[in-house]
Fold each of these.
Amino acid sequence: MELTWAKASLLTGGVLLVPVCAFITSVVFWPGVLLKAYNWYNRRSQGVAVRYSHCGSYRFCYSTRGTPGGATPSLLLLHGFAASKDMWLPVVMYFPRNLHVVCLDMPGHEGTCRAAAEDYSIQGQARRVHQFVRSVGLDKSPFHLVGASMGGNVAGVYAGLYPADVCSLTLVCPAGLIYPTESSFIALLKENDLDKSIVPSKPIPLIPTSMQELEAMLKLCCYKPPTIPRQFLRGLLANRIPNNDFYREVFEAIAGEKSRHSLQEHLNLITALQVIWGKNDQILDVSGAAVIQKALPHCQVDLLDNCGHAVALERPRKFANLVLDFHNKAKKQV
């Protein structure tokens, strides 16, 4: 009997040991798996589900929570360059559970298809977002559109091209303007002769290839970079590096002549606008807020102290509250 129990204990211990060893191995040798597991858990704990939709053969990936069609307009959130739908998780945490929220992977990013290069210009991305909106039925009633950085440029152009879809618009540190003051990031691009065209051999500060470059990018994006465990940073880098050629292609498209000032060219077509900007933004200078306010005097501008470019990461609660306040004002006007 003792021998039988000993064998059973050994067998049970072995069974338990397998997943433990697999987890430890993945953390050590595949840190990217750890980060993906964390995002999966974060989505699950918040009641956020990942879904797919199609426009012909083109596939969109998005996350969603809540049910559309109520008295409150839906929220559609567009992330920035080289990010994904998961960048909004710290913000979604502070939204009411009954609010219908949709976070889209932008063209070519994460789970959304990669297709022709013209999809990555700002106008091309806006067209793809419109296809997504129709594919999931968001166009049945006007929604509140939110865009950050590159996504802010796309969101502004989208609101100008498809005004019937959008009841209100929030732009977060948006690209696509002529900024009166040059940012540290633009200065770095000029220093490397990357402000006019992309040189394959020269590094782009937003496309890190090493831990040192990743840490430098975080310092550039955040007023005070968050304390992130080393293994999570390794996971972030491991998940990004295989996509670096794609990121360079997108960067070339959005920094090109056709896209560089797209938002500014569409400002006259925008109504019901909120602008949120970190006062310490080193990627896109906060002076851009004054450019928008001059063109649209009735827009709401919220400038955040001690905050850089990554507003959703640095000040998620404040950001969520500002969006909700503006969203509720817009709701009354729909």
Amino acid sequence: MDLSQQSRESLLPNFLYSSVATRTMGIERFLNRTPSLQAADPSPAVGGDPAGSFLIQSPKEKIEMYSPAFYAACTAGGIASCGLTHTAVTPLDLVKCNMQIDPAKYKSITSGFGVLLKEQGVRGFFRGWVPTLIGYSAQGACKFGFYEFFKKYYSDIVGPEYATKYKTLIYLAGSASAEVIADVALCPMEAVKVRVQTQPGFARGLSDGLPKFVKSEGYTGLYKGLVPLWGRQIPYTMMKFASFETIVELLYKHAIPTPKDQCSKSLQLGVSFAGGYIAGVFCAVVSHPADNLVSFLNNAKGATVGDAVKKLGLWGLFTRGLPLRIVMIGTLTGAQWGIYDAFKVMVGLPTTGGVTPAAAPASEVKAVA
């Protein structure tokens, strides 16, 4: 084994991703070869191995795991994942926000679209798309990039044995830490987006909406909704990442007979979308009360959390606009994981999740200690 391959393997912790040995044995079984034959003839076949060309093999990836290039790739994947998907569902988000702010006028999803079409025309469905694109691209960059960083960081702190035993806590801690940073990047654009979408005549978009907002409430007003945004997004993101990792692992364990390393890329990406959609349903329910608060606070100048609770009521906080948000967030989260993992595959990285972490043997842990 040459030095470069040793270096790549050292950057691939077996308690988060499949080990090289496991991958090699799986490929050997798939090709009906034995380890002894491989060892006797290590030279590759002329022209490569077409039978294994569809396999995702981490040791041959174009980017080293946990290198600066790896985190840059995850950041870029997050930008594409969140920016594009949130912009695509702007019409749904627009109706949802107006249902939360003015339920008497926007009584249902269908009537909400009808009101918007009648009052603002087709162009009105995409009002606020620029702050949406910029804000959620910045959020996605921090969300996915820092999640990968903190997941590795916390795993290294506790070590392989505890990272395996408490992997869900690693997912929760890593995603929460990442979202704290991501929301600081998102908050100003979210404030402008909600104001533009829910107050007709306030502004056409970001270019005139941001100066008006700052003139009215100052720069600090852009962060008025940060705490409720944390209240919405941190539980959402913790559920999004932890449930996704768990669901994908269960799908590969119980629903797909073929080991992940031997699945086609298209199948792996299909699993990513399915796992993301299911996780998105849980995300919508957990984060919906805070989503109502964010919409209320950003729409009304000088409003407080107490004002929101008093006007909406506890039942309204949990249920107003929820069915639409379940559809929107389920589709959104599934598409985000699909795009993110597709980007990772494109640059030569493995898809997220799906391999049960293997605990280090007790003798090995003692030997290291």
